[in-house]
Amino acid sequence: MSHIAFQDVEVTYPGGLKALKGVTLEIPRGQFVVIVGLSGAGKSTLIRTVNSLVVPSKGDVAIDGASVTTARGAALRRMRSDIGMIFQTFNLVKRSSVLRNVLAGRLGDVPAWRGVLGTFPAADLAFAHECLARVGIPEKAFVRADALSGGQQQRVGIARALAQKPSVMLADEPVASLDPPTSHAVMSDLKRIAREDGITTIVNLHFIDMAREYADRIVGMRDGLVVFDGTPAEATDRAFEDIYGRPIDEDEDLRGA
Amino acid sequence: MIPSTVPRPPAHVRRTQLFVGALAVAAVVLFVLALLTINWPTWARVQSGLTRNVAPLLNGLVRPDLKTFPLAWRSMWETFHMAVLGTLLGAVLAFPLSFLAAGNLLGGRPFAMPGKALLVGVRTFPEILLAIIFVAAAGPGPTAGIMAMGLHSIGFLGKIFSDVIEGIDAGPTEAIRAAGGGPIQVFLYAVVPQVLPEFASNVLYRFEINLRAAAVLGLVGAGGIGLPLLQRLQFRRWDEVSMLLLVIIAFVVTVDLISSRIRRRLV
Amino acid sequence: MPEPTPLGTPAPRAAGAPRPPLVARLRSYLGLGVVAALAVVAYQSTNFDLASLFTGAADFFSFFGRLAPDWSALRIIWRPLIETMQIAYVGTVLGTSIALPLIFLASANTALDPISMLVARVVLTILRSIPDLLWAALFVTLLAPGALPGIVALTFFTVGVLAKLGSETVESADPGPLEALRAAGAGRNRTIVYAVWPQVAATMTSFILYSFEINVRASVILGFVGAGGIGQLLYTRLNFFDYSGVGAIVAVTFVVVLAVDAVSVWARSKLI
Predict the structure, then answer these.
(1) Could you give the CA distance from residue B163 to residue B113 in angstroms, rounded to a whole number?
(2) Which terminus of chain A, N or C, has fewer Cβ atoms within 10 Å?
(3) Are residues A189 and A146 in the same domain?
């Protein structure tokens, strides 16, 4: 059975913009899927229907056969806590320490007042440190998040998602704010962790070469529809020109580094 | 449980935590101490006050006395006019003072000191205190209230004005000077245009504050809606109090809305 | 008077350069006109006596002369002065603890639902429009004279002061961390504690200190309507024309208010 199942998903934003026009996809457990497409193609919207940050106006998204789309309240929150998410702009609390940012992903069952006082269970603290070690910045735990470089901040973002012990990982343009070498480092971290933990991962990417390098499977989107679905080997330049709807120059920024 | 593997925060983080914790404890201790030492009225007294007043109060509040409306309306307009004049008086007097108090024009820091001290001094006096003094000196009525507000506003506006002046961009000043302009041209064409929107915005903000202040100045005989309100409070005419309060709230909320809209467009 | 310059328009105009658009100029003239008309109407309706500004000012300063402090009054000053500080402090603490949950209820990004948000906003707007002394007068009549009505009055007043400043701060918080926390399955409380509060804590603490400053000033005068503290003493001294006693009270109060301000301003500068 597939792990994540999109069934004819449509999204119409208030104001009439149709971001998704019927997407059906089956993603098996443990697959590392990269979604490519121009901005406005519906990549971000698609990824957000998986944790219901965007609720489909038609169709259904299910994880392990349970519908996320129809889940509400505590049930939805429980499903979300199983889904880690990484953002283009990192979305860290800049004034908080790195450790606190990571803990924020951890503490689904810890009462809020403990967060106010900062008295966290020792097991959660230990796990948060472990997550930081896995992304290679254990020494930054007590540094304020805004004192880190972009690449380090994104690693904190990954550690926060890992702290949830997720079975699904969503990454919305995780490297778009980073320089090329850092982008590769972050992507290979992401891939390695997904492999090791068997996490089903969906990544939105802008860059063709990076998609080919890291993906198990590439999904191309244009104008709210899936226009390509295949292995990196099948994703030729020709296929990409189809996804982007125009020829790709050798030195264009879409290639990345 | 694996607490031994959890790294301890570095010393400076622990120090900050300790400091914040100590402050929090001190704040709580102070609070408890205050609660213990305050001269509380006996519960019987509070209870008798509550049982005598709460029901009539609620009763009166939901039934504002319509016959009081003309009086409320008239006194609130007087209050409004007091606030207008008090604010303008303060603004007009603060304007020259603020240039004295600003460190970057007119000779610099040493000259600014006395100006700054004057502004701080004026601000520390609650305006109601000034109003009492003015009522004693010039007799009861709106004039005393307006002067009190004006004087108090000088402190607030003068401080903000001079901050604004100190923050202006030196570029235009230099440009005018380079083009052969004298101090008057510099003032008119480089300083005033830069500071005017901020000044106007803060004058409006002060007006919002003064309108609230003017509503209570009457408590000491300095004009406005405060006196009729206090009288009705003392006689526990809750239905009339209710009408006066309604008019005050409606007026203040409306003025706030208009004023904040204008301020948003200014800056 | 200098020629009124249109607000926000860079002034020096070279000859022949385009003048600011007519509408902008008209608008600033209109603004000035409205202010002038208001001033004239206000001047007439309040019978404001500009002359008394000068004659009154003379009286004012001679009056100040009679305020030479009588320091023996210190004996009776310190107790009500402490009560004043207690009222201000307790009122600030209570007001803050009521204001904080209300602020999160009234801010669009942390509200429970649209209805409770609207209710919270209306309550806060009404609280904010009532001045401190009015609260005190109300509660003195409702409860009994003394420190209690002063504390209750300042509690309500503090909620009003903090509400506006606070909910503007909360609403301007970076939405990114909120989205991240929601994506991780956090409910409203956890989102506030981990994503909003760390962002606004410093500013909020600064506002709380600021409202304490305001409350210290306010608590000085609460006694005028019978709500305890130094104001009550001041009011009786004034009624007895004991001006040297008044002078002593005013001087001591002045020093205390300045000291509180200085400490608070220092603490606030440390926060940012």
Answers:
(1) 14
(2) N
(3) no
| C183 vs A contacts (CB less than 8 Å) | 51, 53, 80, 83, 85, 170
Residue A134 has a CB neighbour count (10 Å cut-off) of 18
Q: Which tokens belong to A168?
A: 């699904």
Q: Which residues of B109-130 are buried (b: 16+ CB within 10 A; e: fewer)?
A: eeebeebbebbeebbbbbbbbb
More confident residue, A134 or C24: A134
Of A66-80, A240-254, B227-241, C15-29, the one with minimum mean pLDDT is C15-29
H or E, element range at A241 = helix A237-244
How confident is residue C48, by pLDDT bands cut at 50, 70 and 90?
Answer: confident
Helix (H) or strand (E) holding A7: strand A4-12
Contacts of A107 (CB under 8 A, 6+ apart): A114, A115, A120, A124, C190, C194
Residue pLDDT, tens place only, B237-248: 899 999 999 999
Taking Cα atoms as reference points, which of A187, A156, A154 lies closest to residue A256? A187
Sequence-distant (≥ 6) Cβ neighbours of residue A1 within 8 angstroms? A64, A65
Instruction: Name the residue facing B1 among A118, A122, A129 (closest C-beta).
Output: A122
Given the candidates 1.10.357.10, 3.30.1360.20, 3.90.180.10, 1.10.3720.10, the CATH classification of the domain at B68-266 is 1.10.3720.10
Structure tokens at A213: 């390098």
Please name the residue of chain B whose CA is at the shortest distance from the CA of residue C1: B188
Going B57 to B61 to B66 to B70, the CA torsion angle's sign is: positive
- Condensed to tens digits (0 to 9), the pLDDT of residues A161-181 reads 999 999 999 999 999 889 989
CATH number at residue C240: 1.10.3720.10
Is residue A171 domain-shared with residue A160, that is, in the same domain?
A: no
Residues C59, C53: Cα–Cα separation, whole Å: 10
Q: Does C109 touch chain A (CB under 8 A)?
A: no
CB C71 within 8 A of CB B104: no
* Tokens read off for A25: 């996809």
Counting one residue from A and one from C, how many pairs have CB atoms under 8 Å apart? 84
C-beta atoms surrounding C105 within 10 Å: 20
Label the pairing between strands A4-12 and A58-63: antiparallel
Measured distance CA(C144)–CA(C138) in Å, rounded: 10
